[in-house]
Amino acid sequence: MSASTPTAHLAKVIDCLQLLLHQHARVRGPAHPELASAAQEAIQQLHWAKRRLLAEQLVVAFVGLTNTGKSTLLNALFGETIAPKWNGPCSSAPVEFRHGPVYRATASYRNRVKRMHQQCGSAAELCETIKANATENGNAAVGMVDRLVAELPAQVLASGLVIADTPGFGAAQPGADAGKHQQSLVSYLPRVHQVFWVVRTSGEISLSREEADFYRQRLSDCCDDLVVTGAEHLEAEHRDQFARFCRDNLGVHFLRFHFVSGKQGYAAKRNGDTDLLNRSGLPALEARLTEVADTSTRLTRLADEVLNLTADFGAWLSQSDAGLAREQRWNCAKVEWLNVLHCAGKFEASGGVPFLGWRDNIGSTLQGGPR
Amino acid sequence: MARIAIVGTRESGKTVLMTVLAKRYQNRNGNAPFLKAMNPQTMAFTEKNWHRLTQERDWPPLTPPGDLLKLHWALESDGHSHEIHLVDFAGETFRTAFGKHNLREPQIRSQLCADPLYGPLLAYLDQADVVVLLVNLRDYVNAPVAPGGMELMLENQWALRGALDYMAPWLNNRVAAVFTQIDQYAELVNGRRSWRDVMREHLPATQIADIYPDISCLGVSAIPETEIELAPGGAPFPRPAANFQSWHLEDLMFFLTETCKAIRVKQEAEAEAARVASEAQSDKLRAEREAKVAEGQRWAIGTAIVGLCFMFFSPGFGALLLLISIVVAVVVQSIVSDSQKLNRQASSPTVSHPQIPDSQSSGVFWKIGIQIGDLIGAALKKFDASASASQKHKSTPPPIPPVHKQ
Fold this sequence. Notes:
The complex is a heterodimer. Chain A is 49% helix and 14% strand. By secondary structure, chain A is of the alpha/beta class. In chain A, helix 3 packs parallel to helix 8 (262-271) and helix 11 (295-320) runs parallel beside helix 13 (358-366). Chain B has a seven-stranded mixed beta sheet, sandwiched between helices. Chain B has a two-stranded antiparallel ribbon with strand order 8-9. By secondary structure, chain B is an alpha/beta fold. Chain B is elongated, with a radius of gyration of 36 Å. Chain B folds into two domains: 3-247, Rossmann fold; 285-389. The interface between A and B is medium-sized, with 25 and 25 residues.
């Protein structure tokens, strides 16, 4: 990537912001312990924003407890049965779905250089191949699969998006295999750019403790979207209650909720039933995935995301550090502060009209000004 | 041959700058400066740190206080060689040496010179002909909010000023204040006319820009391109980017080569003046010697004539005088040949500073000749006196050449 592109300049702004927050927390942290954790949270979010910005091929992972309907949801998105559906613990290795002209599977193994390549004649054959290689079926060799890549000509992947079906966390494996699926998921997460968290409801408004804990520990930085499957069981007002419950329970306010019925969506696509498809909530989720994958709007979205983050942090500082004058807030990290402004100016100049005033905006929001 | 010393406070970038400088100028390229490692430690220092920067993409570890790594490069430029000595001191040692002590006090100065921690640093600076003082603006720009931060900032400021106060009396304008990591100060520098203005604005307490108007102020960045990564604990840290380019190293190299050149020109002028003075002295000595030789020759000839005359009256005494005149002639000849040798050496272009050596042989022979001459002179005077007493009865002898005592 050329160093003079808007993307490179925005990446530099993110770098400078991370150093600014770190320096600020390092100097002021001893006197204000809460500042260190707030800065760390913001640094992590900036880190994920930068990863998304620089990703050549965006990997979106659907993550959730075992049997929350991830595979059903993916099949609905693809419009055909590709991801194997199980009633018990299933995927033991992450499966990446990429766009390709033919059905094809490639498995890589933990301790082997040679990979398995298999061209499949149909979606069903690809599904069988995935089932044989990446699901828990008693085959010892399956446990050695590190990752499986499945290529298919699905419309939702045409923009270059990679969708990953991951082993469910919290899956109960017997004996020596205990926690193996979760380990596989955790070790795969660093490859992912964005997580869609999948939870299932049967009409009740609740989250399991395990789900909430996993979200806080592993997903809070990289997940902006919560997909609720089994949404056919929830009325409209219950959906609002569910969203409020999750936001309050998890302490986050920026999650986007997608209420989807995978079963309805899949059936609607197979039967060409537009009404049912709309009711299933699938089109909205597809639109969101398209938005995430769209490289032409990615820069604008992430620039906006960075601005929102600085505004959030500035507002947080205004509340927690009220004794300090706004103008003096960043004096302890003046070099870093000036670097942010300098790089923001260069980004504004390289990005053109959409980013006019961006430098001033970021300066003012960091000082606690309005966004 | 000039000796260059590079010093700076903690994290001012001495190790990184010197490593990158050594690698950027490690190949001969026409008349461009060329840096040559002069000992195995220097090569190991450069290669290890370069590997760390470019392959591991990490920073060299901080030099711990008390550690001394003596590094030595030859800087070749315009066909001349200069020495760069980098004693890789902990920046903390530099800060405490000059920031906490007033080295204008002779007593404190002698105490520090004897101190095992500070002594080598002061000796290193004492021997330097050119000093590069590295300055990290971050130490002076970020407000010192943390406990003890203000004291640290003041010590850093005084370390710069104290070091200049210490070195300026003999170095004058052969000191450069070099701002490092300038890629991070784009906004600070924006609109300033020069690095001297930056110095005046951001280090006003040091008053360096006003007290030392002749020192050079430069800005460099050895590794301006970095990439931020998160450490396992979540703290962001910048890593050197792959294939980074450096900024303005050529300015620093220009200062070093030009200053070394000026020192060389000055040294050559001083040597020329010394040579001229030495030549004048040698001419004077040569003239004196030639005068003495001429006198010796005259004396030998006179003595030989007298000896020949005496052969008729007293053959023994006449033979003695002849022998003496031969000895004196031999001594004089030896001195003449020594002088001719010296003259040839003096005219030879390979010897820049001809000296008249206190040649063992010519000195001894000369002294012997003079002693003999003195003895003969005294004997002749006595003989002259007794002869003049008997002159009434004999004819007047030929005049005796005078004998000069040295």
